Amino acid sequence: MKGAIFFSTKHGSTAQYANWIGEATGFPVFDVNDAKADPSKYDFLILGSALIFYRLTIRKWVKANLADLEGRSKILFSVSGAGAGSKLNQWVAASLPESLLSKMNHVALRGRMNPAKLSWVLRQIMKIGALLNPNRKASKEEREGFDYVDKSSIEPILKLIEEFQLSEVST
Ligand SMILES: Cc1cc2nc3c(=O)[nH]c(=O)nc-3n(C[C@H](O)[C@H](O)[C@H](O)COP(=O)(O)O)c2cc1C
């Protein structure tokens, strides 16, 4: 089984998770902005994407490569501020074609956000978002930042990969 990881990141945490999964599995890791990121060369794909402004950043690449992803993609991991739940599922569903998503396992990972590293414009947008957010904890995080990046949270992904590999051997 030839597996590979394809990721899209804005601020680095999705890349960090993708590299950890790559180290643990030996699968090559590609940034989707890299011209060498060709999913047609692999038969087991793990897609990883940052979630920015309610959408997965990988969505345009997915659209452009849909024919090669159908039938190959197995696991999607999203990296967001919000944790797993219906809100996140809605944003993911609005980002990817149902035909692809329905055949994938989705694992929600949490990322990091450091306001000091954002552009001035993005910082102002986050401040306004914080003012409008009725959830006090989420509002504080939008204002002050957060860091949930944790290597152990890739364990469910490694388990799924192992299960797929075992099912390949037994069929
Ligand atoms: C401008 C901006 C917008 C964001 N929008 C959302 C959002 O809509 N929902 C969410 O759960 N997290 C949101 N986040 C948090 C990101 O998902 C989090 O920072 C994640 O780690 C980004 O992944 P990356 O580091 O790979 O770019 C946002 C972060 C930034 C900086």
Give structural notes.
This protein has 171 residues and is of the alpha/beta class. The protein has two domains: 3-111 and 148-170, Flavodoxin domain (Rossmann fold, 3-Layer(aba) Sandwich), CATH 3.40.50.360; 113-147, no CATH class. The protein has eight helices and eight strands; from the N terminus they run βαβββααβααββααβα. The strands form two sheets. Strands 1, 2, 3, 4, 5 and 6 form a six-stranded mixed sheet that branches. The chain has a two-stranded antiparallel sheet with strand order 7-8. The two termini are 12 Å apart. The model has no long low-confidence stretch (mean pLDDT 95). Residues 9-14, 50-54, 79-82, 111-113, 118, 122 line the site of flavin mononucleotide.
Structural class: alpha/beta
Q: Tell me the quaternary state.
A: single chain
Q: Give the tally of structural domains.
A: 2
Bound molecules: flavin mononucleotide
Strand content: 15-25%
Q: Which fold does the CATH topology of the largest domain refer to?
A: Rossmann fold
Any idea what the radius of gyration is?
A: 16 Å
Q: Please give the alpha-carbon distance between the first and last residues.
A: 12 Å
Biggest pleated-sheet summary:
6 strands, mixed
Low-confidence stretches: none
Number of helices: 8
